[in-house]
C-alpha cells in the first residue's frame, strides 16, 4: 500500500484530512519542524507528501529544500492560499510540487495524491466506513448536543452556533448536508441559506430546516430557496433520519 506523509501545523482541518487519507493509504503525520520532518521522511520513506501551509513561516522552506534536494522523485501536494504559497513560489517550477487551494476537500486531496502516483483512488481499508458529513447549525447548545448524539453513529457530525460560523465551517468541512435552525441572532436561517445559495462552490449542498418557526410567511420565504426539507421541532428521530437519508440520496443522484 502506498505511503503518504502529511506535514503541517495541527488543527481541525489537518486532523480531518489525515484521518481521511489514512483510510486509503499508509499515512503518518509530521509537524512542520524541519528536524522532525527529516526524521519522518527517513522512517516512512513515503510515496507522496502533503504539505499544509497554513500557519507556517518562511523557515518551512527547509522542508521544501529537503524534498527538492533529496526526494525529487516524491510528488508533493501543498495546500494553501496564493498568499501562503507565495513564500515558496520558486519550488513550483520543477513540477514536483502541486498546490491545491486552501481549503480543499479531503476527497479532492486524495484524488490528487492518486493522480500524482498514477493509480486509481484506493478502496477503503477493510473495516473502514466513509461516513457522510452533516453540519448542524443552531444557537442552542442543548439542541446541538442532542442532535449530535442522535446522528453520531451514522454520520461525521460537526456543529456551528451561528449562521456566520456555519458559512466558515462549510468552506472548511465541505459537509454533505446541513441541518439549519431559523431563529438565530445576527444572521438567521433564511439569511444563512441565501449566502449558501449565492456561493457557487457550496450552493448545491442540501439544507434541511429544523426549527420551531411555524409562521406561514416565513416558511413560504424559505421554501423559495429550495431547501431539502422543513421539519418542526421537536422532531421524531426516525422522521429526522429518514429526511436526511432522502436528501442525501437525491443529492447523490444529481452528482451522477
What's the tally of helices?
Answer: 10
Under CATH, the homologous superfamily of the largest domain reads Response regulator
- Indicate the CATH class of the largest domain: Alpha Beta
**CATH architecture level-2 label of the largest domain:** 3-Layer(aba) Sandwich
Order of helices and strands: EHEHEHEHEHEHEHEHEHEH
Q: Can you walk through the features of this model?
A:
- This protein has 256 residues and is of the alpha/beta class.
- The chain folds into two domains: 3-117, Rossmann fold; 133-255, Response regulator (Rossmann fold, 3-Layer(aba) Sandwich).
- It is 42% helix and 18% strand.
- The protein contains ten helices and ten strands.
- The chain has helices at residues 12-22, 34-44, 61-70, 82-86, 106-117, 141-151, 163-173, 189-198, 216-223, 237-255; strands at residues 3-7, 26-30, 48-52, 76-79, 97-100, 133-137, 156-160, 177-180, 207-211, 229-232.
- The strands form two sheets. Strands 2-1-3-4-5 form a five-stranded parallel beta sheet, with helices on both faces. A five-stranded parallel beta sheet has the order 7-6-8-9-10, with helices on both faces.
- Helix 1 (12-22) crosses helix 5 (106-117).
